[in-house]
Amino acid sequence: MGVLVSGGLVSGLLRAQNGAGAEAGKLLEQLKSLEETVTKARTGNNLAAVDEIREAAGAEAKAVALWIESVRETEFRDKDKKESDFRAWREGPGRRLSDPGAPGALRLHLQYLLLSIRATTATTDEARAELLSSLLAYLDDLSRAGKDVLKNRQALDTSVLATPIARRFKLDITVRPPEGWSLNPGNLETIYETTILPYLREKKDAARLQLAWTRRLQQEATMIQTQDSEFLTKNYQEIVLPTLEWAQARDLYLAGASSSAAKMLQIIQDNQGHKNAPQWISELRVLLTGVAAGAGGPSAGAAGGDGGTAPPEAPEEESSTKPEPAPGPGVKPATKPGAALGVKPVPASVPEPAANTPVKKPVTSEISTTNQSR
Prior knowledge:
By secondary structure, this protein is mainly α. It has one domain. It is built from 14 helices and no strands. The protein has helices at residues 2-57, 60-77, 83-91, 102-121, 125-143, 147-150, 153-156, 164-168, 171-174, 188-203, 206-227, 230-254, 260-270, 277-289. The longest helix has 56 residues, at 2-57. The radius of gyration is 26 Å and the shape is flat. It starts with a helix and ends in an 85-residue tail after the last helix.
């Protein structure tokens, strides 16, 4: 009887499990359908906003007009505030939108917002490659924007998903760029180090790496010249530029351009007093021999190849660009370099700031609320 009872219990359990499995299958089908509906709605919302934003991004006056109208909608009408309150804002903090360079900074902000929307749906290799080309073109525009535009850090250091425009079009809800995508339009270094270079390193595309690094060096130099600072120029030439050139040569070497090893040696010879020189010597030795300092024998693979000894972590470098400010409310920080273009994180030439490094948070209230004074 005991065996019969046990058999009955087992049979009942099996029937319950089968029933639960069937029910779970139905729920999963409904969940998939719901996911498709939500994705379609988000995509439709983003596409509806793109045309208007694209038109505004094409001219400074239109960029300012869209910003003003978005402030009216999100900060006044949606909050049932009086029209007189809006006029007071226009005559007060809103006047800063007419400051030298402010319209140009807003135009760049909108251009980068459009790129961030594109990044949300760039899931194929072709789409990612096109996005990368557009990013490089955008950074050309950013670096050549001029001193007045570049000093308007409020627009350039504010997350594109934490503005009146993003809230007006619900983009802060529907736009979700890949992890690793920088949301701040003015941080050239971060855009390269978290999106552009990791993608090309993963592809081991020496030719495109060379082109990207050439453009970055040109852009960095242009931005330094624009600031017209003797101190910054000297710091760039003596500290930052050799560090960037080292990172470029190392990237090319790891991508298969073996002749770059001679370039790395030349960089050490030309910059023997640089604070990173000892680290560069150790790193080049590892790359050439595959043996880390103090190791007892050869590594399992060639330097830079699969299974080889990884090069030492690159030292922190002084940068000619500003660190990434904290993201806007509700925006997930970008933490994994390369994920934005669908690649695995790889050693970057410039390490990210430490988690406890203080960063300057963007201030958006000056041009979007009523309680600020000029």
